[in-house]
């Protein structure tokens, strides 16, 4: 009899514990989940950042449950200092930059593409009307970046050797524009909105990355961020893609004020801004990446033997 009573008592206790477990509040259950982390992302102000800005303004990041801290920089040097200093998880940069990071044992992976362009624009007072006229002329660029890579490719496609022009190293993009305006250089390679401003001043458009089939800019995250903030990065790209849908299917005057404020177009460009058709996130082709790796190796920027797979991670398209 005592044995039966003991078994009965154990059963009652077990049922009581199960009941307590079942009655636990949702709040108590959720505390076991890791808290969402902030994604810190940096970029030079350009057209490339528009989907990120729109995703923030329209609440797409919040909808996907990710907090994005976006920081704008005036030069690749400043952006890279923040990135390498551990203040950023990811950046908008270029394939050259990622190759250099890997060469320096800074494990960064390309996780997506962007749709900005680099335009080669001549000073209206320099008597330059074609790319062949650039021989012996000064061109403002940032060195060891996709700006220099793009310039070399544009020149080579038009049978001009890169060594036959004078490369003026001017990292800050606004300074490049000012030097072009003040006749300090004969030409400059510029992203938007600075290229539009240069053309508005009477600059002569000689060529562009996109016209030559180059889409050099990318989004990239450190491998550490990919390992520790995978859910946040996936959520970031879901919101990014939703912003791309919105931009491509909405009249620009609906969000033009946001573009002017955040990208840097002057107010008098309102109603005249033209944007590219943005792509939903994808990875650049291995052929594109190999072309950049070959250029960095040829120019002595990279000593390691790199392959496109060393630079890629598909977390942004999962």
TrEMBL record:
Pfam families: NMT1_2. GO terms for cellular component: periplasmic space. It is found in: Periplasm. Its main location: periplasm. Keywords: Signal. Residues 1-24 form the signal peptide. Belongs to the bacterial solute-binding protein SsuA/TauA family. PANTHER family: ALIPHATIC SULFONATES-BINDING PROTEIN-RELATED, TAURINE-BINDING PERIPLASMIC PROTEIN. This is NitT/TauT family transport system substrate-binding protein.
């Amino acid at each position: 009899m005592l044995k039966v009573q003991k078994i009965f008592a154990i059963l009652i206790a077990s049922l009581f514990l199960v009941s307590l477990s079942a009655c636990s509040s949702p709040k108590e259950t959720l505390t076991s989940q890791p808290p969402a982390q902030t994604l810190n992302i940096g970029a030079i102000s350009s057209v490339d950042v528009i989907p990120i800005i729109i995703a923030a303004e329209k609440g797409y990041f919040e909808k996907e449950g990710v907090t994005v801290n976006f920081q704008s920089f005036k030069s690749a040097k400043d952006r890279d200092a923040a990135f390498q200093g551990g203040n950023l998880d990811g950046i908008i940069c270029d394939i050259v930059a990622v190759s250099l990071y890997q060469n320096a044992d800074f494990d960064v992976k390309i996780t997506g593409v962007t749709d900005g362009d680099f335009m080669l624009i001549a000073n209206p007072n320099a008597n330059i009307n074609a790319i062949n006229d650039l021989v012996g002329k000064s061109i403002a660029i940032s060195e060891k970046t996709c700006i220099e890579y793009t310039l070399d490719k544009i020149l080579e496609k038009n049978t001009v050797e890169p060594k036959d022009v004078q490369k003026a190293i001017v990292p800050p993009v606004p300074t490049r524009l000012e030097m072009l305006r003040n006749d300090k250089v004969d030409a400059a390679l510029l992203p938007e909105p600075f290229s539009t401003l240069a053309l508005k001043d009477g600059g002569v458009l000689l060529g562009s990355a996109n016209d030559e089939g180059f889409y050099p800019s990318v989004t990239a995250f450190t491998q550490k961020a990919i390992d520790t903030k995978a859910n946040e990065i996936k959520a970031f790209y879901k919101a990014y893609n939703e912003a791309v849908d919105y931009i491509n299917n909405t009249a620009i005057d609906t969000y033009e004020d946001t573009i002017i404020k955040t990208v840097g177009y002057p107010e008098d460009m309102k109603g005249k801004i033209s944007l590219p058709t943005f792509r939903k996130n994808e990875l650049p082709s291995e052929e594109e990446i190999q072309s950049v790796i070959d250029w960095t190796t040829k120019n002595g920027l990279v000593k390691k033997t790199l392959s496109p797979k060393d630079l890629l991670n598909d977390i942004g398209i999962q």
